[in-house]
């Protein structure tokens, strides 16, 4: 079972939920910190492509708004390889500005924001959060649309080449956009050279 490749990535996934409620409460009571609107996400070099800056309008019918309390909440994971080298999914996919970053972390971990689409990322761990008031069918294509990047059998974001798709340890022959994102779905996209499926171990609180 593969763990995130560095302790930094593991803590990014685990630390988000702990910091989220406290900072969200602080933001609700006191307003966002003055620097929040100018607090950019600085992507680490392995990030494949930065997250699109979104205006909160629905995308693929998915709305943005406050974090959904209760309701439907599942986590899936996306791993990306380009010619055998792993690239990371950025923090802030499906998140509208201004944002609040965890000030104790050198890497970007989003703890509060103006709004969250029902499909989003808080950090660079590859964990995709799907949160909606009621059960909802989400797809990988919708996630890439929120990311602002293409996804086909010949392109994953800015990376071009033949794409091999793995879902839960099995090779997937269909359109990668149609992959369903359900509880603990593990997706691996290999552009160019194929890489054997690398299982991901979700944090215990996910």
Q: How many helices in DSSP terms? A: 2
What sort of overall outline do the alpha carbons produce when their principal axes are compared? globular
Query: How is the quaternary structure best described?
Result: single chain
**Strand fraction:** 25-35%
Sheet with the most strands, sense and barrel status: 7 strands, mixed
Secondary structure class reads: alpha+beta
Please report the total strand number as a whole number.
Answer: 15
Radius of gyration: 16 Å
Report the average pLDDT across residues: 86
InterPro entries: TAT_signal
Organism: Catenulispora pinistramenti
Signal peptide: 1-36
Protein name: Secreted protein
Structural topology:
Elements: H1 7-30, E1 64-65, E2 72-82, E3 85-87, E4 95-101, E5 110-117, E6 119-120, E7 127-132, E8 138-139, H2 140-147, E9 151-152, E10 155-156, E11 159-160, E12 163-167, E13 170-172, E14 180-181, E15 186-191
Parallel strand pairs: 2-15
Antiparallel strand pairs: 1-5, 2-3, 2-7, 4-5, 6-7, 8-14, 9-10, 10-11, 12-13, 12-15
